[in-house]
Design brief:
The complex is a heterodimer. Chain A is mostly helical. Chain A has 9 helices and no strands. Chain A is globular. Chain B has a domain at 21-59. The longest helix of chain B is centred in the middle third of the chain and has 44 residues, at 16-59. In chain B, 17% of the residues are buried. The chains are: A mainly alpha, B mainly alpha.
Chain lengths: 252, 60
């Protein structure tokens, strides 16, 4: 098992290997992602019962919760890639981190905006400066900061290093987001998913939510691969195998 | 189906504006996430092809 992991790690460090294998993996992410998102959205919009307090506005949950979860997971993955780059100098890790940043930012933005849209009919206001919303806004700025730093530095090496350090520092924000609804008074409702308790939600509301979460994560996986493949082509352009890939693309 | 008619479905019990706005923005963000890397890839490949051609001209 350990040997297998070590071998996988070394393979993942090889851009050529990743480029080839990700081309094969992509359909296995794209197709289930599309299915989950379509089924989840239709189920959530048309078949799940309305909430007895919030009415139909609660259907925004099927976008809000998956995007908020994914934004935080994406941030953690980006920071882990940054750490791998800093410790073992693995170039691939830096490229994956650079691919995660813009997708994470869009997911964080989606969570914030759907939260605001949901807040208006539910709380009577688009925005409050409470801990949950503010820490989530900070997450968005952290994503922007990492993206800006990755593009601002002179050399590729320094850009990846600075981006990795900022993403690791920003990691303290993640537990703050998670516990903000417990530590401070807030309008925001408590977590929908809890590891230790049975969910309070009715099952016919919960199923579409689970399907949407899976769909969001699969979509994210596919998009990270596509962006990382772009990074590889760009950064490894002097390599012969990349030239061959480009020629084959040109022939089409 | 939870709703009695298509009009009910669109109205979302007076919350139609909020629900459809949220889903519309989500759709736009998903489309952006798909289209942006595809355009990027096209640009990179066109750029690499141009470089390759220039190098070949230099050699001859």
């Amino acid at each position: 098992m350990w040997d297998y992991l070590v071998r996988l790690y070394h393979k993942l460090g090889s851009p050529k290997w990743f480029y080839e294998i990700s081309g094969k993996w992509l359909p296995w992410f794209v197709v289930p992602a599309a299915l989950c998102l379509i089924v989840g959205a239709v189920w959530g919009l048309a078949f799940a019962p309305a909430d007895y307090q919030q009415g139909d506005s609660f259907r925004i949950i099927y976008i809000h919760v998956p995007s908020a979860l994914l934004a935080q997971s994406a941030y953690i993955m980006m920071a882990v890639c940054g750490a791998v780059f800093l410790i073992w100098r693995m170039k691939m890790a830096a490229w994956v981190a650079a691919s995660i940043a813009p997708i994470g930012a869009t997911m964080c933005f989606l969570a914030l905006i759907t939260g605001a849209i949901w807040g208006k009919p539910t709380w009577g206001t688009w925005w409050v400066w409470d801990a949950r919303l503010t820490s989530m806004l900070l997450l968005l700025f952290l994503f922007f900061g990492v993206m800006a730093i990755q593009q601002a530095m002179e050399t590729e090496e320094n850009a990846a290093k600075a981006g990795a350090i900022l993403s690791l520092v920003g990691l303290v924000n993640i537990p703050i987001i998670k516990y903000s609804v417990e530590w401070w008074n807030t309008l925001h409702q408590p977590a929908t998913f809890k590891m230790t308790e049975k969910p309070a939600m009715a099952l016919d509301m919960l199923w579409p939510l689970l399907i949407m979460v899976i769909g969001f994560y699969l979509f994210f996986g596919a998009m990270v691969m596509i962006r990382t493949r772009n990074e590889i082509l760009q950064r490894e352009r002097k390599k012969n195998w990349v030239k061959k890939v480009v020629q084959e693309q040109a022939a089409k | 189906m939870y709703f009695e008619s298509f009009a009910d479905f669109i109205a979302m019990g007076r919350h139609g504006f909020y629900v459809w706005l949220a889903y519309g923005i989500a759709l736009a963000i998903f489309v952006f996430n798909i289209v942006h890397p595809m355009l990027q890839r096209k640009k990179i490949i066109a750029d690499l092809k141009r470089r390759e051609r220039r190098e070949q001209q230099k050699r001859t």
